[in-house]
Amino acid sequence: MNYFSSDFKLGILGGGQLGKMLLFDTRKFDIQTYVLDPSDEAPSRMACNKFFKGDLMNFETVYQFGKMVDVLTIEIELVNLDALEKLESEGVKIYPSPSTLKAIQNKGKQKDFYVENNIPTSKHLRFVDIADLKKSLEKDELEFPFVWKCAEFGYDGNGVKIVRSTFDLIDLPDVECIAEDMVPFKNELAVIVCRNPSGEIKTYPVVEMEFHPEANQVEYVICPARIDDKVAEKARAIALNVSEKFNHVGLLAVEMFQTEDDEILVNEVAPRPHNSGHYSIEASYTSQFENHIRAVLNLPLGNTDSKVAGIMVNLVGEDGFSGNVIYKNIETILGWNGVTPHIYGKKQTRPFRKMGHVTIVNQDIKEARRIAEDVKNTIRVIA
Amino acid sequence: MNYFSSDFKLGILGGGQLGKMLLFDTRKFDIQTYVLDPSDEAPSRMACNKFFKGDLMNFETVYQFGKMVDVLTIEIELVNLDALEKLESEGVKIYPSPSTLKAIQNKGKQKDFYVENNIPTSKHLRFVDIADLKKSLEKDELEFPFVWKCAEFGYDGNGVKIVRSTFDLIDLPDVECIAEDMVPFKNELAVIVCRNPSGEIKTYPVVEMEFHPEANQVEYVICPARIDDKVAEKARAIALNVSEKFNHVGLLAVEMFQTEDDEILVNEVAPRPHNSGHYSIEASYTSQFENHIRAVLNLPLGNTDSKVAGIMVNLVGEDGFSGNVIYKNIETILGWNGVTPHIYGKKQTRPFRKMGHVTIVNQDIKEARRIAEDVKNTIRVIA
């Protein structure tokens, strides 16, 4: 198949920042891309060959879009799976496959999948609604505290809550959900796995999410994770296993907990480029985005090793500011060694909206971490 | 000035592959860009905010384009300078400035500039036409062999010829030209200098152009050059001096000869991103393209050091093939360590047309050189 400067068409469902970053590589390779997104202001609108505005959950919209392309991939997992299944049955190549997406899209099914496949994960219970969950509490099958997650449509911490008492149940939406055991953990880790249809498979190094000591928010994604080599090896092996069991093609970001006694438990997965891999644009031989494109086109995968240490800081809208965005002090951080801001192109900021990220690379991970903290304390996303 | 996700507009004259690569960074920073190019199929057409089709040498076209933007830059030096001068007088910021472009656009003036500023360069004579040159030969002011260059509009080896006898004069076009002494040299080197309007200035490492032993064609651009540190320091110092003397803003690629006795002679300059800096996308902390954008917007310059060794191989159309391009064996080279093809997006190949380049990066420059040779011998640009 001739992908380069040819009539071949890659379709991407979703046109957010992940799609935008995928398009850097389709442009680099001059691969034709069609993008479908509900927003007129989608960051991917520019730099794709054709942009289509439409609802990703609408059967007809997704089906008609899919009929126009040769290979279809996603940058968001909330898409109409019935349309994908029909397209696949009609010969469109879809990566990740609808069956993989089905196993991942519902967090209850995803957790069941880990249990069925002997993949270490925290204990969980599934509930069709809140009444169902309350019954379980009454019967003492479920105990406080636990982690509540809505089964579908959660993202970026939305749809997740730590429930410590009946009081915490009041605000929860009445939807299908799961309850997970609270796991005391030392580190939250992630491994991105890349696999092509031929079965070639590679993992990126283990990254570490460093949390703010009080706010319990991820502040830095650090590559490589500052953990014992044996723990890192174990995490990579488990991530590989997860990817193979899902028979996954493309990128699979596997989020994991490192428990107090160095067990690795899989938390959840995302079948696409992931925030925890953004550092790879500057730090890796091959970025996660390029490897996603290579994988879904069944090209050989690129080297996932790092050239240098990389740290990623998210740029989120500051609380109390809404309106036309200003990146205050961005000129200052541009003057520092190895600092690259990525501005996603959303014109309006809102409190905690993901507006961009900053990568800091350095030969010395400690120096990168020092600069990252300065970046975090200097740049402000305001209106 | 707020450049990021704002109403600010950067104009780029020229929409070829250099412009395309500049747009990766304007997109990364979400800086609005307008592009002017004569071709409907300009590689920059996608990924800019607005594309205008028009003649870069036409006064009115360039003037009207310039009136729409806040800062104007170039990716090709053959543009209407009268329009730029008028725009500058009316307050449009133009980098590089029309006066710098004037001193560079004509190779005769450029050589005079070096002489006036005590910048080491080979001896030259200027001629208004071929008759003028022939008179000089008759008067023995000029002797065979010499290097003939047309004064304007040459590029990529066009407009350059080694003249060894009267016979070689027959095919030369009757235009303004110069004759330069033939310099026996060990190496052809280049240094890219980056300077912003505030006067911050940085140089990239010295790169070396390795020639095919028989064909006398550049085969590899190698960073860092495999030369003595002292020679490298001298080359960087001379390049810095050239940039300062031109009072240049943006990127200035300074091409130089290293003579048999380790003298450095300036050959010529290009006031824009340059083929000799393409390796920087993968190998440097900050690519030449990002630094050009930073410079013309008077932002702090990024680190010009390399993370790893980089080698660039041009992808040119193979002789004997014209038509819809096929990159034969590109799948093979994608499987090799640190290999990144850049496909410019020209749909039609022609003999020797520049269609793309491939970068090879590695911790070990010898390993990179070995892989580069395999790349060169494997990939074919055919129809």
Automatic annotation (TrEMBL), chains A, B:
E.C. numbers: 6.3.4.18
One Pfam family of this chain: ATP-grasp
Source taxon at top rank: Bacteria
ATP-grasp domain boundaries: 111-297
Signal peptide residues on this chain, from the entry's feature table: none
Keyword annotations: ATP-binding, Ligase, Nucleotide-binding, Purine biosynthesis
GO molecular function, one term: 5-(carboxyamino)imidazole ribonucleotide synthase activity
Reaction catalyzed: 5-amino-1-(5-phospho-beta-D-ribosyl)imidazole + hydrogencarbonate + ATP = 5-carboxyamino-1-(5-phospho-D-ribosyl)imidazole + ADP + phosphate + 2 H(+)
Physiological role: Catalyzes the ATP-dependent conversion of 5-aminoimidazole ribonucleotide (AIR) and HCO(3)(-) to N5-carboxyaminoimidazole ribonucleotide (N5-CAIR).
Subunit annotation: Homodimer.
Protein name from the UniProt record: N5-carboxyaminoimidazole ribonucleotide synthase
Taxonomic lineage: Bacteria, Pseudomonadati, Bacteroidota, Flavobacteriia, Flavobacteriales
